[in-house]
Amino acid sequence: MGDPITLIANWLSGLLTGWGLAPWLVTLIMSVIGIVAIATFVLLVDIFLVWVERKVVARFQDRLGPNRLGPFGLIQPIADVLKLLIKEDITPEGADKIIFNLSPIIALATVILLWGVIPLSPTILGSDINVGVLFIVAVGAFSTLGIIMAGWASNNKFALLGAFRTVAQLVSYEIPMVISLEVPVLLARSMGIHTIVNSQNVWYIVIAPVAGLLFFISSIAELGRTPFDLLEAESEIVAGFHIEYTGMKFGLFYAGELLHALTVSALFSSLFLGGWRGPFADQIPLLGVVYLFIKSFFIYFVIMWIKYSFPRIRIDHMLAFNWKFLTPLSLSVLIMTAILSKVLQGVSQPVYILTMLLANIVIAWITLTIVRRYAHVQRKQFTEFRPVAVPEKAQVTTTNP
Amino acid sequence: MIPLSWFLVFSAGLFSIGLFGVLARKNAIAILMGIELMLNSVNINLVAFWRYRGLDGIAGQVFAVIVFAVAAAEVAVGLALFISIYRRRNTIAADEIDLLKW
Amino acid sequence: MPPVQILFIIIAAATLGAALMVVTTSNLVHSALWLVVALFGIAVFFILLDAAFLAVAQVVIYIGAIAILMIFAIMLTRKMVKNPSPQFNTNWAWGIVISVVFFAGLFWMLNSWPGVNTSMPALGPNINPVVDLGEALVSPDAYVLPFEVASVLLMAALVGSIFIAWNRK
Q: What chain C residue is nearest to A142 in terms of C-alpha separation?
């Protein structure tokens, strides 16, 4: 059964060539139409995400959420967009106008760029570059630049401080993200996401669960979501690097953050949960899109679940968590996966899966044991009995904190 | 379709602009930016020669990767030095840092 | 003119223009942002040369790390002056002369080389530069030794820069 997108594309290119246009012009026009189609689809999903976010946070907090506008509050995001559009657009005095206006655009554009390399189905994908995984890292690095531009252009000390802290966190958490992204690349022998999805006869979450978990945690830190949302916490740094943004510019930041969360979920699904794979996805390509979005929304729900259940981590704890825990763990997982995938080169499929799963469980158990011992030592230090007021004759035992 | 000379002339031009940046700027970080432009033009040269020589051997790309690593190391150490100098002398204009410790 | 040539001219003009703005702007943060534009143009050139891995690595390393590091350093070493002082030192005229002479010399030297106008050979169907690069960087009879030396260099730079910039009071 042909999928409709390829049929439409073939018909359109036949039509354009029939009009006598040069082949390179036909390719250019088809590419532009494809880009506009993907970007529009992604932005429409983004509007839906605003509704999902507010309903889910309401249910987590034991209330109903927006239910006035439309059935189940479905018109609420449109009301939000209208409100942001008619707000006053303030540019702070002394701000650098060009950079000030450019940073929200960069923040949203770099998120939409990522959708160009995620394969939505066996035949629907933006472009099949063979360095797709590194492209994701590159676009993430570019968005970091957008944030520091926003912080500096606001001419505001809090914004600058927030931008510094944001960039420190984002650059630090790129390292375990990149190293844990190497594990599916290693298992699939290619950096192209299309190839990685195609070679997932068994989902990679079964073969490399620790790497998946590491990618998940570092992606949540890259997003700037709780528990890592010190960057824009209202009680700590007065909304961080986007203090001075009002109206639709703030809307671009907000929409970009939500869309980034969905993009990260889609990436996690493609790299570790098999992407568009599912029953009958090969014959009916549109089913692949459905499967991918089911998996992405499930992971998005888990990200929101974590957001509304955990408290915020302090910045020094956050950096210590990255450099002392995540980076060594990701390096050891990568080394173990590399060694095992070379040693197990000829064995049958079930033995391979079971050995890799067992090795991952062993690493996880060793890590948990080390962390438990360290926590035990720390707890003993902090909960020793320290008398506050002692009588004159008693022996005063002071303990060092 | 694009002759090799275009790439080489472009990289020569970029190198000259970087050279002007190094020779004529006062701020030390601006000098470092000129050095970065020069290193990038050399990278373009290396990869262009790799591509146009019939892809025999991969030495051009490997050289370019090593240049990436060296440039990153140099920028890191250079900027650490600038911050350290700024703490002592309170300036990083290259023509004001002209005395040894007295 | 084939479209690839038009694209080349546009990207080359943009990159050279951005590089000129880097070396002439007096506001240093603007200069750093123009450097980001120039580095991005170089990444596009890498794509034109079929070196996809180098293009993406350029964005990650240069724009994602080096440019951000430079912006941090600019913001940390800035005195709070409202009107920036002229950013050229006293010998800037000699700088222009030397750059122009250098470019003219390179141009003349390139013209006197017979092989300068070769056209791009076609890439074979099964050639994958990323795979070749990966194999060359870790194969013992290829370039594994420079690769390891580069990683030692990076570690030395890491330790050295932390030590230099450490605030010992």
A: C64
Angstrom distance (rounded) from CA C155 to CA C168: 22
Q: Which of residues 38-77 of C touch B (CB under 8 A)?
A: 38-39, 42, 45-46, 48-51, 53-54, 57-58, 61-62, 65-66, 69-70, 72-74, 76-77
Decide if B31 contacts B25 (C-beta within 8 A).
Answer: yes
Q: DSSP 3-state assignment of B93?
A: strand
Residue A318 lies in a domain: yes
The per-type count for chain B, helices as H runs and strands as E runs, is 3, 0
Fold of C1-80: Four Helix Bundle (Hemerythrin (Met), subunit A) (1.20.120)
Q: Is B46 on the interface with C (CB under 8 A)?
A: no
The verdict on C100 touching B (C-beta cutoff 8 Å) is yes
Q: What is the CB neighbour count within 10 angstroms for residue A88?
A: 6
Which residue in the set B3, B21, B65 is minimally distant from C23, CB to CB? B21
- The answer to whether residue B35 is domain-embedded is yes
Of the listed ranges A176-180, A211-215, B88-92, the least confidently predicted one is B88-92
pLDDT digits (tens, 9 = 90+) for A32-78: 888 898 899 999 999 888 888 888 989 898 888 888 888 888 888 88
**ipTM of model:** 0.91
> What are the tens digits of pLDDT across the range C65-109?
999 999 988 888 876 555 566 778 888 889 999 999 999 999 999
Question: Global pTM?
Answer: 0.89
Per-residue pLDDT for A258 more than 80?
Answer: yes
* Domain-embedded: residue A240: yes
Which of A27, A98, A142 best tests the C interface by mutation, with the highest count of C CBs <10 A? Answer: A142
Residues of B numbered 13-32 whose beta carbons fall under 8 angstroms of chain C's beta carbons: which are they?
Answer: 13-21, 23-27, 29-30, 32
| Any C CB within 8 A of B67 CB | no
Any idea where the domains of chain C sit in the sequence?
Answer: 1-80, 128-169
Structure confidence at residue C81 (pLDDT): 54
Do A36 and A12 contact (CB within 8 A), yes or no? Answer: no
Cα separation, C162 vs A362, in Å, equals: 35
> Which residues contact residue A99 at a Cβ distance below 8 angstroms, ignoring those fewer than 6 apart?
A149, A152, A153, C33
